[in-house]
């Protein structure tokens, strides 16, 4: 047990802890730190030459803080100096050491992105969910959301990000990328992620989100006609999947007041299952604030999406375990 600092003693007298600290305490408990460190270790430089490297876990903690709170390299360095909750999560005592600088974090982040460690972490968490029986099989919900990108050309290249594109949603033009996810219809956990430019239609990426053992797929009205697409018709498995796509309200027939509206009842049932896909997007945009990309290019932002959805699945799993109703014996 590390020795308490004066700040630890002072903060221990508080009447309540902040929501930020509660969140960090939860992540401290549910993240398999040893396992995640082992994924990074083969790529992490040793300290035989040059200045000594920081510990892998310490750098991983700093990187996760940056991802969770959507901060820049310099921004997270300053935030750790300012915030007791951040410093506590990092395990830093200023009597012994200082916060890793922004350049060190930049190199660590590039190491994560180059070796696609975000994807490895996401697959590892899903494997644990499957082995635990939390993630089911047989059905997938597909959906997509737009992540905005800076549209300004006031930068070094005097141009927008060439990998991002514009698309019109409703009456509004959006510039950025699109995150496509496949969610397990039974549990609501995200099992597949892809990323494209914003102008790629949701239906074009749907075939990459369906698992090999899925028998049914749910989607909103944007996926109407999916069964007619060539990549679906020409695939032996995908052509046999049942596509339960929510119809547009205007397409439903009108009935008399005395008749039972079977069409709307069926659409309500499909919507009640399809809505599970909105929960991960709620975590992504509202809890973690990932509404606008921070990096240029889709690859770097796709790595961040993998890390975030790995953490989102962990949070949803932890919530489910804490609020599950025990079976009556």
Tell me what you see in this structure.
Strands 1, 2, 3, 4, 5 and 6 form a 6-stranded mixed beta sheet that branches. Strand 5, helix 10 (230-233) and strand 6 form a beta-alpha-beta unit. The chain has 13 helices and 6 strands. The chain has helices at 6-11, 19-30, 33-40, 56-69, 73-82, 84-90, 102-114, 117-132, 202-205, 230-233, 262-274, 278-287, 298-322, and strands at residues 139-148, 165-169, 172-184, 190-197, 216-219, 242-245. Helix 4 crosses helix 5, helix 5 packs across helix 7 (102-114) and helix 8 (117-132) packs parallel to helix 13 (298-322). It is of the alpha/beta class and 329 residues long.
Helix content: 40-55%
Give the C-alpha Rg.
23 Å
Overall structural domain count: 2
Shape summary = globular
**How far apart lie the N and C ends?**
41 Å
Order of helices and strands: HHHHHHHHEEEEHEHEHHH
Pairing-aware structural class of the strands and helices? alpha/beta
The counted number of beta strands is 6
Assembly form of the protein: single chain
């Amino acid at each position: 047990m590390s020795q308490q600092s004066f700040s630890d003693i002072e903060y221990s007298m508080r009447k309540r802890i902040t929501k930020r600290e509660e969140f960090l305490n939860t992540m401290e408990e549910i993240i398999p730190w040893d396992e995640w460190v082992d994924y990074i270790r083969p790529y992490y430089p040793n300290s035989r030459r040059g200045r000594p490297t920081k510990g892998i876990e310490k750098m991983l903690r700093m990187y996760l803080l940056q991802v969770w709170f959507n901060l820049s390299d310099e921004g997270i360095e300053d935030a750790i100096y300012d915030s007791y909750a951040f410093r506590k999560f990092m395990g830093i005592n200023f009597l012994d050491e200082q916060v890793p600088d922004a350049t060190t974090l930049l190199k660590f982040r590039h190491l994560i992105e180059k070796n696609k460690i975000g994807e490895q972490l996401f697959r590892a968490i899903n494997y644990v969910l499957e082995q635990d029986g939390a993630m089911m099989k047989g059905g997938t919900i597909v959906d997509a959301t737009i992540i905005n990108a800076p549209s300004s050309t006031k930068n070094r290249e005097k141009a927008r990000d060439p990998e991002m594109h514009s698309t019109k949603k409703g009456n509004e033009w959006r510039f950025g990328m699109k995150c496509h996810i496949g969610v397990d219809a039974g549990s609501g956990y995200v099992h597949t992620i892809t990323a494209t430019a914003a102008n790629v239609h949701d239906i074009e990426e749907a075939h990459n989100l369906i698992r090999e053992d899925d028998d049914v797929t749910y989607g909103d009205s944007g996926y109407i006609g999916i069964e007619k697409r060539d990549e679906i018709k020409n695939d032996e498995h995908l052509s046999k999947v049942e596509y339960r796509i929510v119809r547009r309200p205007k397409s439903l027939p009108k009935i008399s007041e005395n008749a039972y509206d079977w069409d709307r009842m069926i659409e309500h049932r499909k919507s009640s299952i399809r809505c599970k896909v909105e929960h991960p997007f709620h975590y992504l945009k509202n809890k973690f604030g990932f509404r606008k990309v921070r990096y240029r290019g889709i690859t770097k932002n796709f790595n961040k999406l993998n890390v975030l959805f790995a953490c989102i699945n962990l949070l949803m799993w932890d919530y489910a375990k804490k609020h599950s109703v025990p079976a009556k014996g």
